[in-house]
Amino acid sequence: MALESRSKFTVEEVEVATAGTPVQLSDIQAAESAELVIKAKRSNLGAIKIGESSLQAQAGKFTLEPGEVIKLRISNANKIYMDAEVSGDKVELIVEQ
Questions:
Q1: How far apart are CA 97 and CA 94, in angstroms?
Q2: What distance in Å separates the CA atoms of residue 2 and residue 14, rounded to the nearest whole number?
Q3: Spatial separation of the C-alpha atoms in residues 81 and 60, rounded to whole Å
C-alpha cells in the first residue's frame, strides 16, 4: 500500500515565555494519518513537559529532554499543551497538511 505524498507542511517554533505557565500549541491541522512531530530545541536548558491540558503539562505528564522528539497522530496541534522547566525554552513543530 503506497502512502500519498503531501504537497504542504507547516513548521513552527513555540516558546514557553515563563516556566510554570503552560502554552497551548497553535491551531495547526494535520492531514489524515500524518504525524505531528514535536522536538525540544537542543539549546534548551531544561525539560519540556507535554500534556492534554495545562494542568497535565504543569505536572509533567510526559517530558522531552533537550533534543528529544515525539511523534503524535493527532488532528490538530492545539490539543497539546506544553510547559518548561526553564523560561524561554522552545519546541519545534512540523506536520504535513
A1: 10
A2: 33
A3: 10
- List Cα–Cα distances, 44 to 67, 79, 87, 92, in angstroms: 8, 23, 9, 11
Confidence of residue 4 (pLDDT cuts 50, 70, 90): low
pTM of the full predicted structure? 0.89
Rg from Cα positions in the chain = 13
| Cα 63 to Cα 33: distance, rounded to the nearest angstrom | 24
Sheet holding 90-96, edge to edge: 9-15, 90-96, 36-40, 69-72
Cell 500500500: give the residue: 1
**Distance of alpha carbon 96 from alpha carbon 88, whole angstroms:** 26
Going from the N-terminus, what domains does the chain have, and what CATH number goes with each? 15-96 (2.60.120)
Q: Is pLDDT above 80 for 2?
A: no
- Grid cell in block for residue 93: 513543530
